[in-house]
Amino acid sequence: TPSFQGSNPCSPATNPTDESLWDFACIPKGIYDTMNGIIPGRDMEAPAVKAASWSRENEGDMYTFNSRVRYSETDEYGQLSLVGIINYLQDCSTFQSEAIGEGVAELKKRGCAWVLSAWQIHVRRYPSLGEAVKITTWASGFKGFLGMRNFTMETEDGEMLACANSIWSYVNMETGHPVRAPKETTDAYGIDDPIDEDFGERKVKMPEADFIGEPFPVRPHNLDTNHHVNNAQFISLAGECLPKNFTVHRMRAEYKQQAHLGDVLHPLRAETENGCFISLNDEKGQPYVVVEFQ
């Protein structure tokens, strides 16, 4: 899913053999990924999440849009689901990209895309049907082919509903290799301070699985404009593997490789004292995505 959107004819990556950058991107050399979602219950109290006060509308390098929770976005409890929150975050970043001339069509002409490497999302409260929400995003840093982006979702009164950090890789879609985002692109987004929130480790290590689910294929509705499984769809599929009535307040996802139409996903689950891990693997046992739900 496009999120930063942008750049020019895909200049070569700077120091593509720099192991620290390859490691930081969470992606094997030459192969890149993307994807997102889930279905929580509502019977658990949320852990303490710091309610940062990022409420400036379109000020500086931030971008904000307002909306209301639609019936089509709610779960069986009449609340916006985790997948719904992720879709709002994606939409906000895409709207910013379109507004500054770095949108989906422009990226396609350049043969490049921003591909998601990692999500870290904290949900303080799930908004209800009809509730007004304000979504804000901004770039918090660039390093070589990497882009870091923060998000918040708030009420009209400034109550923090959710906040998130994300890491993206700028990829030449023809070669599948990361390339440095052009200066014109990073300048167009600008940079603002990262949100004051402890999102934990970027990498998600899968514990030993205690449950193996039935394999299932990628369907057409799982794909996005990059013709691979959307990051929110991955979270949605992983969420379907959670124990019944599991309420999600924190989520970390590390994307390992792309999945395409017809690929078969093999789910593994590991329950821990603090939450639940889901890994969606390929037929060789290599993960497409590893997700921790708390």
Summarize the structure.
The protein is an alpha+beta fold and 294 residues long. The N terminus is likely disordered.
Could you please describe the fold and organization of this structure?
This protein is α+β, with helices and mostly antiparallel strands. The protein has helices at residues 19-24, 82-99, 104-110, 183-189, 231-239; strands spanning 63-68, 112-123, 132-143, 146-155, 160-172, 177-178, 211-212, 216-217, 250-255, 264-271, 276-281, 287-293. Strands 1, 2, 3, 4, 5, 6, 7, 8, 9, 10, 11 and 12 form a 12-stranded antiparallel β-sheet that branches. A hairpin with a 2-residue loop joins strand 3 (132-143) and strand 4. Helix 2 runs antiparallel to helix 5 (231-239).
Topology:
Elements: H1 19-24, E1 63-68, H2 82-99, H3 104-110, E2 112-123, E3 132-143, E4 146-155, E5 160-172, E6 177-178, H4 183-189, E7 211-212, E8 216-217, H5 231-239, E9 250-255, E10 264-271, E11 276-281, E12 287-293
Antiparallel strand pairs: 1-3, 2-5, 2-9, 3-4, 4-5, 5-6, 7-10, 8-10, 9-12, 10-11, 11-12
Helix pairs in contact: 2-5
* Extended strand count: 12
| Average of pLDDT | 84
Please state the CA-atom Rg, rounded to the nearest Å: 18 Å
Helix content: 10-25%
User: pLDDT below 50 for ≥5 consecutive residues: which ranges?
Assistant: 1-59
Number of helices: 5
Features:
single chain; 294 residues; alpha+beta; 12-stranded antiparallel β-sheet; 12 strands; 16% helix; disordered N terminus
